[in-house]
Design brief:
Number of domains: 1
Bound molecules: nicotinamide-adenine-dinucleotide
Radius of gyration: 17 Å
Organism: Streptomyces kasugaensis
Number of helices: 6
Distance between the termini: 41 Å
CATH superfamily: NAD(P)-binding Rossmann-like Domain
Strand order of the largest sheet: 3-2-1-4-5-6-7
Keywords: Oxidoreductase
Largest sheet: 7 strands, parallel
Family: Belongs to the short-chain dehydrogenases/reductases (SDR) family.
Number of strands: 7
CATH architecture: 3-Layer(aba) Sandwich
Protein name: SDR family oxidoreductase
CATH topology: Rossmann fold
InterPro entries: NAD(P)-bd_dom_sf, Sc_DH/Rdtase_CS, SDR_fam
CATH class: Alpha Beta
Structural class: alpha/beta
Helix content: 25-40%
Strand content: 5-15%
């Protein structure tokens, strides 16, 4: 089955998804599995229920427990994709943590450094390490990468992001653009930058960002011109689109399902 504008693979397409145990990542895993992909997931916290409705034969999705800050964890999940499913066509870098909206004067220096290092390590270094592990196999298959950015890759006020999360998501945009230039023409690299999506997103110290979900969804709705709060399932097909022949001419691009924040 062809998965890209590049070479054709005789086998079914294969993806690696980081942070695929919850929220947007889990919806991406389900969407890919429902559309013919085999998927290897890397996540720190595997869900108790590892089945997804689309994984009817129990064989489409495989799970690896590991931390995206650990280079070997990425090697393990890429090795699993290749040994179990026969190759790699798509790498989705998605695992992330939030900073809880901290301002630069909210914490003492040591605490600020700890939060900032954790968020930058997961949301930026985790993406670099994934790209490093996946680049070779993707060049072999003519595949692509898709990363999860955020409205915080562009906005700095009003969206709940603090200074560390804004820094990380701005930096992740730089990662996407650099990789797109670096890996062309062998591997395309694109991104999806959602606005507020109610998920299990946590802060570096483990608090749920959407704990007061009603209040937060009202704020998200108020912020964007379309007045929407998207569900992970609504965003997931965009990842598959960016990996498909329809996007064969796109690299270094970002799709922004954020209710129109750029024209606010
Ligand atoms: P989520 O918490 O539901 O999913 C994130 C997943 O990443 C979890 O399964 C978590 O276990 C995993 N993870 C976190 N740290 C990890 C680590 N060190 N190693 C391995 N796995 C780790 O949250 P989500 O909202 O689905 O977040 C997915 C991505 O979407 C993140 O990059 C986030 O920044 C981004 N994002 C979210 C929103 C939103 O409103 N929810 C908006 C824009 C962008």
């Amino acid at each position: 089955m062809a998965v890209d504008g590049g070479r054709r693979a005789a086998r079914e397409p294969v993806a690696v998804v980081t942070g695929g145990a919850s929220g947007i990542g889990r919806a991406v895993v389900a969407d890919l599995a429902a559309h013919g992909y085999r998927v290897a997931v890397l996540d720190r916290d595997l869900p108790e229920d590892r089945g997804i409705p689309e994984d009817r034969d129990g064989d489409r999705v495989r799970w690896v427990a590991g931390d995206v800050r650990d280079p070997e964890a990425h090697d393990r999940v890429v090795d699993l994709a290749r040994s179990r499913f026969g190759g790699l066509d798509l790498f989705v870098g998605n695992a992330g943590v939030h900073d809880g909206g901290i301002g630069v004067r909210d914490l003492d220096g040591a605490a600020l450094a700890e939060v900032a290092r954790h968020v930058l390590d997961v949301d930026v270094v985790g993406y670099l390490l994934g790209a490093r592990a996946a680049a070779g196999p993707l060049a072999d298959s003519g595949g692509s990468m898709v990363f999860t950015l955020s409205d915080a890759s562009y906005l700095v006020r009003g969206n709940g992001a603090g200074i560390a999360y804004a820094a990380a998501k701005h930096a992740a945009l730089g990662v996407v653009r650099h990789l797109a230039a670096d890996l062309a023409p062998a591997v395309r690299v694109n991104a999806v930058a959602p606005g507020g999506v109610v998920t299990g997103l946590r802060t570096a110290d483990g608090r749920h960002v959407f704990a007061g979900a009603d209040e937060i969804t009202a704020a998200v709705r108020e912020l964007n011109p379309l007045g929407v709060v998207l569900r992970p399932e609504q965003i997931a097909p965009l990842y598959r689109l960016l990996a498909s022949p329809a996007a064969a001419g796109m690299t270094g691009e970002v799709l922004r399902p954020d209710g129109g924040l750029s024209v606010r």
